[in-house]
Specification:
mainly alpha, Four Helix Bundle (Hemerythrin (Met), subunit A), 69% helix
């Protein structure tokens, strides 16, 4: 089935919804490493590579232990890894979803469920909630992406 040129325009409310959500998710994906760096500089620890423990403008007073895991820094790093595991799948599935022309309400529910799920997961992870709570938040986003991918598959069979 050919993609109509109007599918990928801001006049298409499904594409518009996807662009808004994808932009938010890309910002989240790119801001989290900055949060990790800010935390590393703040506590002067949690560095990863041996050269990071040398004297520099961002590490003016090197000390032993700077390469050891620091929970404050590592939590942010784990959040970024979780984003890297989740957000690219949403971006791909969401784009394919737009191309098959789903009903607007279905698109809005699935896309914004994903974004809300990631926001809830961020809050749960950053406040050190139990795995059960984080998993609950993550599950809704995963189901939304699977719903989009399943819809695309059904439309293309």
């Amino acid at each position: 089935m050919p993609v109509e040129p109007a599918t990928l325009t801001l006049e298409n409310p499904v594409f518009h919804t996807y662009l808004l959500a994808a932009s938010i998710m890309l910002l989240k994906l790119m801001i989290q490493p900055w949060i990790t760096v800010q935390r590393m500089v703040k506590v002067g620890a949690g560095y990863r590579s041996p050269e990071d423990a040398r004297k520099s403008p961002l590490n003016p007073t090197p000390r032993d232990g700077q390469l050891e895991i620091d929970e404050y820094v590592d939590r942010s790093r784990r959040m970024n890894l979780n984003d890297l595991e989740s957000i690219p799948g949403f971006l791909a599935a969401g784009f394919l979803f737009v191309l098959v022309g789903p009903p607007l309400l279905l698109a809005q529910v699935l896309i914004w469920t994903y974004v809300g799920s990631r926001a809830a997961h961020f809050i749960a992870y950053s406040t050190a909630q139990l795995h059960d709570i984080r998993a609950f938040c993550w599950t809704w986003g995963s189901l939304a992406v699977m719903g989009m991918a399943g819809y695309v598959l059904m439309q293309t069979l």
